[in-house]
Inverse folding.
């Protein structure tokens, strides 16, 4: 259960990430396999926290 000062956020599916990045699902899966994009795993479910995606984008934008 989340504490009152930590709002719940909607985790992103890999397909959500592919849509946001305008790339293929295969590309997103490669980034995950390379450990370039952090994920949350729960059994077969794989999700990305929005702040991790923001950080991934920022790192690539800054070069």
């Amino acid at each position: 259960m989340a504490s009152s000062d930590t709002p719940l956020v909607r985790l992103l599916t890999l397909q959500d990430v592919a849509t946001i990045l305008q790339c293929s699902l295969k590309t997103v899966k490669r980034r995950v396999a390379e450990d370039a994009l952090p994920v949350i795993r729960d059994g077969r479910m794989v999700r990305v926290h929005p702040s991790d995606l923001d950080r991934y984008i920022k790192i690539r934008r800054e070069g």
